[in-house]
Amino acid sequence: MESIKRTPAKVNLCLLVGPGNESGYHEVFTVFAPVDVYDEIAFTLRARPAGDVSGELRVECKAAPGEKNLAARALRALERHTS
């Protein structure tokens, strides 16, 4: 069964990024406003034996292709973690 979920978008009105800490993360201050656009995430659930999480994962986005896309980077991190 395929399921499609919408993820709301926002526009940063102000974004301040502080210096990185030892773990590589930065403190962030932001003011944002919601906008009437969204991304769609589609996925299909299939019956599999317990513990089997194999399948095809992909991100399609013309506006932010490849590794510029945060969703694509998150997907690659998930693949590395579950391989």
Overall description:
The protein has 83 residues and is α+β, with helices and mostly antiparallel strands. A two-stranded antiparallel ribbon has the order 1-2. It is extended and about 45 Å long. The chain folds into 2 domains: 1-45, no CATH class; 49-83, no CATH class. Helices cover 16% and strands 46% of the residues.
What does this entry show, briefly?
The protein is built from one helix and two strands, in the order E-E-H. By secondary structure, it is of the alpha+beta class.
Compressed to H and E, one letter per element, the order equals EEH
The main sheet orders its strands as 1-2
**Overall helicity:** 10-25%
Shape: extended
The count of β-strands is: 2
What about the largest sheet? 2 strands, antiparallel
Distance between the amino and carboxyl termini:
24 Å
What is the radius of gyration? 17 Å
